[in-house]
Design a protein that fits this description.
The complex is a heterodimer. Chain A is α+β, with helices and mostly antiparallel strands. Chain A is globular, with a radius of gyration of 19 Å. Chain A has 13 helices and 12 strands. Chain B starts with 14 loop residues before the first helix and ends in a 15-residue tail after the last helix. Helices cover 24% and strands 25% of the residues of chain B. The longest helix of chain B has 25 residues. Chain B is an alpha+beta fold. The model of chain B has no long low-confidence stretch (mean pLDDT 97). In chain B, the strands form 8 sheets. A 7-stranded mixed β-sheet of chain B has the order 3-6-1-13-10-11-12, with helices on both faces. In chain B, strands 8-17-15-14-9 form a 5-stranded mixed β-sheet, covered by helices on one side. A 5-stranded mixed β-sheet of chain B has the order 18-19-27-28-31, sandwiched between helices. The chains are: A alpha+beta, B alpha+beta. The structure holds flavin-adenine dinucleotide. The site of flavin-adenine dinucleotide (FAD) has 31 residues of chain A, from strand 2, helix 2, helix 6, helix 7 and strand 8.
């Protein structure tokens, strides 16, 4: 690591100002991703603005939904009574990520902002357009077993690693942010970006903006929800493929569906078209297979990740069956 | 006072020190004035350093020195001509900071020493290096045509090597295993301290204090007595700490340059290609049998790789040569030289990869024959070692099969692949056999009886985790009739009596024998002293009339007795010391000594996603007489857990375009976590081997791993009907 300044403001405004004053400053929350990146010189901030003292630690019931403070830890989120009751999908997604120790430190804001786990991004001796624009994408013709099958560009084929974000994308959440120019809210599905020509930009958060909270609207998906994560060991591994599936079922027919995938794209991959397909269909494996086929339209694989094209639809079907209670 | 016997389930003598954090590891010696060294490593696999700029680092706060090939202190051993006589690895050892050549990626090219660790890390970042790249090769599979027979290898052939080709039933298959990395919890560390310029002391992560001492004295041209290697606690090693590595050389050089003690601890990414690993293998395997399943011939051609500067060889073919009765055999083992660091011994070095091929092929053969895989193994049981026709010193493999199968419930297995299911999970049952040498080496031990009747026992042996210190305390307590508290065992120090390195599963047989025998000698000596001293209640007693009960020498008539301490008092001795060198006799050569095992595994494979979970393991092991059931079971657990890792997830991934590891951390190099490990049921035959050593014990540290990965692959085949021949068995291969 290189020497850096460290400040710990108590007020939100002070935190944003502290960041804006230096070109090379970063927020630090749980530090579980940022410190790893700093130890490897993938990011080298000269100043850290520790935001843990800001009053963003609460989960509150509001009219029409629930607001989750950006500093709520992943553990607190997953175990919160309201979340378990109303959004079991989110709770399941969060506990499927990382380890208990990491979840105790990791925060909602940090989790959304975590960087890709692409090997080439992590090693400064290798090319990576995301880390160092213009150096090329190491994964494109390299080891790309973990990489994207949707929405990639020839500049970057990395995937977003968060599990929590896949559930939030499915649940129509919005992100509340605050910056030098004031507050705004961003639809969760618009928060993360596709790589396009600028893979160095993971999100649409502007410079010096702070995530303050995430809002999830009330929705009838508590009963039939499943987050299914496929990985080669039972826990503590990033998803090969994951699926967030939630259904609103009435009389064995699907009123509404929410579907998103992780491990397949540069952002949580919401499956709007497949959701539409499911609307009004009977609860059956055949319906789910049809939706999965729609979901996979446009998927394209690289040398080592063709398995995802087989694994993803199977995982969608299985997640939907589990959500519907028909396994 | 409870009598201690060999075999008792006793807690580790050092257990409390470890769990309370009192035990100190190599990087935890905060000697006065200690400085911290951090290695800078190369970012290319081959070429030369064209420029190395250390100015910024030297100017950074707290930095005491930057050592590179341009200013490194002289290492006389590096100038010596290569002498491979008696060396374990042929070739020119890696020479740290010797010249500008880059021989592998992550090669250490500079050491930054600073007053704190953080400042050393920062200094290391500031060293700037320019390279001239050369073309490199790091792929075994792309360079198989360049394979050569290593200097220390002879192809083993017997009978008609081609016989398998004419067999009525023939299975031919190619198996691949990837690079696997030891990844002990404690990364490789050394704290070095010079006392003048003729004497050096190291607190070292090593499996062999005597090897450390020898190699350091050779490198720096020091008297052996002037090199002290301490290694009382080691946080796992698995073979990776059995020769001299760059962090040891760097700490010693850094200490020389700065005049202060220096500690160097490798970062996790540095252990992947600097301090050894298990090399990948490509294996061509053919096995032919009669229609009744009797083996007619085997051909096993294994290819491994090594560095460009040394020939590291491992025992890939050993299980094939000895496991089954098979009259005809053709084997070969060749290496490809790559721009990689030299691999090194890794738990079951060779046997682990080789047995994956052998035991997978046996399973394939069983299906080809429509025969139960266990039955196939039984009918090919070898009555003596087919490699050399020597009788076994002991072999209870058949008992392992019987008891393992019974405990596991092998009979519930429907032989048809994909026939067993539990909900969305396909169920598979598989098994495999294992064989591993039960060796014994020369060792010494010294025991000192103290005035209070307790003893102090010493050996240079390391205890890297298997529980050796506990076992030796236990053997001594058993032999001397003392409670555990009355035996103090000191180990892990090169000034203590000679012990071989703790590898090759031969520590108990080697050092245990020395302990056993030195205790017998002590009792003998005490008996002499008791009967030859006028005034002794046992004066003049005949040996035949005497016996020991606990710590007391008694006459059979029961009218006189002497405790150990009384004997010392009688002779006005403060203490009594006895040393002993132990080595087996000619019988060791007349017999073939091996440990055996049979592993039974149940897996679940998710029908939709291809995820594999191990549901149950029964490991039946013939390792002779068990010295301590608790520590022995832990050895089996360790093997099984690693076996699950090797079978299902471990793979050191290299991008050959850059010749560089990609997943060199524990987030990406997956090892099993608790949730991956099922109930492990351990069965020991616990029957004495009459030849190997006086305790009747055979090696146990590696045997349960041999064949284990094949047991999983076989279970996966049974579950899914898919034969996976390239490890690891990840979900993508099962879709
Ligand atoms: C070994 C390992 C395994 C893991 N496995 C998984 C997994 O399986 N699934 C998974 O989803 N995750 C996994 N993670 C990632 C983990 O979830 C993230 O590290 C964690 O959520 C990051 O949260 P944090 O609070 O520690 O963020 P930090 O490390 O503190 O920050 C991360 C980034 O977010 C920015 N940031 C933080 N808070 C804010 C805010 N309020 N506003 C704006 N920017 C902000 C920081 O500036 C920084 O750039 C794993 C991590 C590790 C180390």
């Amino acid at each position: 690591m290189i020497p850096f300044q460290y400040v710990r403001p108590k007020q939100q405004k002070a935190a944003i100002d502290a960041l804006a004053r230096d070109n090379n400053a970063m927020f630090i929350a749980g530090g579980t991703n940022l410190l790893d990146l700093m130890k490897r010189y993938v990011v080298v901030p000269q100043k850290l603005v520790d935001i843990n003292q800001l009053p963003l630690h609460n989960i509150e019931q509001l009219n029409g939904g629930i607001r989750i403070g950006a500093l709520v830890t992943n553990t607190a989120l997953a175990e919160h009574k309201l979340i378990k009751e109303k959004y079991p999908l989110l709770s399941q997604a969060v506990v499927s990520g990382a380890s208990a120790q990491l979840r105790n430190m990791a925060t909602v804001g940090g989790n959304m902002m975590q960087r890709t786990r692409c090997y080439y991004f992590y090693d400064t001796a290798l090319p990576c357009n995301k880390r160092e624009p213009g150096t090329g994408c190491g994964a494109l013709d390299g080891v790309n077993r973990m990489h994207a099958i949707f929405g990639f560009s020839d500049k970057c084929i990395a995937v977003h690693p968060s599990d929590m974000s896949v559930a939030l994308a499915a649940l129509d959440a919005t992100v509340q942010v605050s910056g030098p120019k004031g507050e705004r809210s961003i639809a969760f599905t618009d928060f993360h970006r596709l790589p396009g020509e600028q893979p160095e930009k993971d999100t649409n958060l502007h410079k010096n903006e702070l995530i303050t909270s995430v809002f999830i609207p009330d929705a009838p998906f508590a009963r039939n929800a499943c987050y299914l994560k496929v990985r080669e060991r039972a826990s503590f591994a990033f998803a090969l493929v994951s699926v967030a599936a939630a259904l609103d079922i009435s009389n064995n027919s699907i009123r509404e569906a929410r579907l998103a995938m992780g491990g397949v794209a540069h952002k949580p991959w919401r499956l709007f078209k497949a959701e539409k397909t499911l609307k009004g269909m009977p609860v059956s494996e055949a319906s789910f297979r049809q939706a999965a086929a729609v979901a996979m339209e446009g998927a394209r694989a690289f040398e080592h990740n063709a398995y995802k094209i087989k694994m993803a639809p199977e995982t969608i079907v299985h997640a939907l069956k589990t959500a519907a209670g028909i396994v | 006072m409870r009598k201690v016997v060999m075999g008792d389930r006793l807690d580790r003598v050092e257990g409390q020190l470890k769990v309370t954090g009192v035990a100190r590891y190599a990087a935890e010696y905060n000697l006065p004035g200690v400085a911290h060294g951090v290695l800078v490593t190369s970012s290319i696999p081959r070429g030369r350093i064209s420029k190395i700029d250390t100015k910024a680092a030297e100017r950074a706060p707290g930095v005491l020195a930057v050592v590179t090939h341009e200013n490194a202190p002289e290492v006389p051993g590096y100038e010596a001509s290569v002498n491979n006589e008696g060396s374990r690895v042929y070739g020119q050892e890696f020479r740290l900071f010797y010249d500008d050549k880059i021989l592998h990626n992550f090669q250490p090219v500079a050491l930054v020493v600073a007053d704190t660790y953080e400042r050393a890390v920062h200094g290391a970042f500031l060293v700037s290096i320019g390279y001239e790249k050369e073309l490199h090769n790091t792929s075994l599979r792309d360079n198989l045509d360049d394979a050569f027979t290593p200097a220390d290898q002879k192809d083993h052939k017997r009978g008609r090597p081609d016989a398998y080709k004419e067999a009525p039933v023939l299975v031919e298959q190619e198996y691949h295993t990837p690079i696997q990395v030891h990844n002990p919890m404690e990364t490789h560390s050394t704290t070095a301290l010079w006392e003048g310029d003729k004497k050096v002391k190291v607190y070292n992560k090593t499996q062999a204090t005597k090897i450390s001492q020898k190699e350091i004295s050779k490198a720096f041209d020091l008297e052996k007595e002037n090199v002290e290697a301490h290694s009382p606690f080691v946080g796992g090693a698995f073979g990776s700490s059995s020769r001299l590595w760059p962090q040891e050389m760097a700490a010693i050089m850094g200490a020389k340059v700065t005049g202060r003690p220096v500690k160097v601890m490798l970062m996790r990414d540095q252990v992947f290609n600097m301090v050894g690993y298990r090399p990948a293998s490509v294996q061509y395997f053919s096995v032919g049998a009669t229609a009744e399943g009797k083996l007619l011939g085997i051909a096993h051609h294994a290819r491994g790789f090594t560095s460009r500067y040394e020939q590291f060889t491992e025992r890939l073919l050993d299980p094939t040569k000895s496991m089954y009765s098979c009259p005809n055999m053709d084997t070969s083992y060749k290496l490809v030289s790559l721009d990689m660091s030299t691999p090194c011994w890794t738990r079951g070095p060779g046997e682990t990869s080789g047995s994956f091929a052998l035991e997978s092929a046996m399973d394939e053969l069983a299906y080809a024959l429509k025969m139960d895989p266990l039955e196939l193994r039984k009918i090919n049981y070898a009555e003596k070692d087919p490699e050399n026709d020597k009788p076994w010193s002991s072999n209870y493999l058949l008992q392992c099969y019987e008891r393992g199968a019974e405990r596991f419930g092998w009979s519930r297995r429907n032989p048809e692949p994909r026939s067993m299911r539990e909900g969305e999970w396909l169920v598979g049952l598989g098994m495999a056999s294992g064989i591993y040498k039960a060796a014994r080496d020369r060792a010494e031990a010294r025991v000192k009886l103290l005035a209070d009747g307790s003893v102090l026992l010493r050996s240079a042996v390391a205890d890297v985790g298997p529980g050796s210190a506990t076992i030796f305390t236990q053997i001594a307590a058993d032999r001397l009739g003392l409670p555990m508290e009355k035996v103090r065992f000191e180990w892990g120090n090169s000034v203590f009596p000679y012990a071989p390195g703790q590898f090759g599963s031969h520590t108990t047989a080697s050092v245990g024998s020395a302990v056993y025998e030195v205790c017998t000698d002590l009792k003998q000596r005490l008996q002499e002293l008791a009967v030859n001293q006028p005034g002794s209640p046992l004066y003049g007693a005949q040996a035949a009339d005497l016996f020991f009960e606990g710590n007391t020498l008694k006459t059979k008539t029961g009218n006189a007795s002497l405790r150990y301490a009384d004997v010392l008092e009688l002779h006005a001795l403060k203490e009594l010391e006895v040393s002993r060198e132990s080595r087996g006799g000619p019988e060791l050569d007349e017999f073939s000594s091996k440990s055996f095992c049979a592993n039974f595994v149940e897996v679940r494979v998710h029908a939709a996603t291809g995820e594999v979970r191990v549901a149950k393991v029964v490991s039946a092991v013939d390792a002779g007489k068990i010295m301590n059931h608790k520590t022995a079971e832990s050895q089996v657990y360790g093997s099984v857990v690693w076996g699950i890792g090797i079978a299902l997830m471990e793979e050191g991934i290299i991008d050959h375009r850059f010749g560089r590891h990609l997943n060199n951390d524990l987030a990406d190099y997956h090892v099993p976590i608790n949730a991956d490990v099922p109930d492990i049921d351990v069965i020991f035959t616990d029957l004495e081997d009459p030849i190997v050593d006086p305790m009747g014990a055979k090696g146990i540290g590696e045997i349960p791993l041999i064949g284990f990965t094949a047991a999983i692959a076989n279970a996966v085949y049974h579950a899914t009907g898919k034969r996976i021949t390239k490890l690891p068995i990840t979900p993508d291969k099962l879709l």
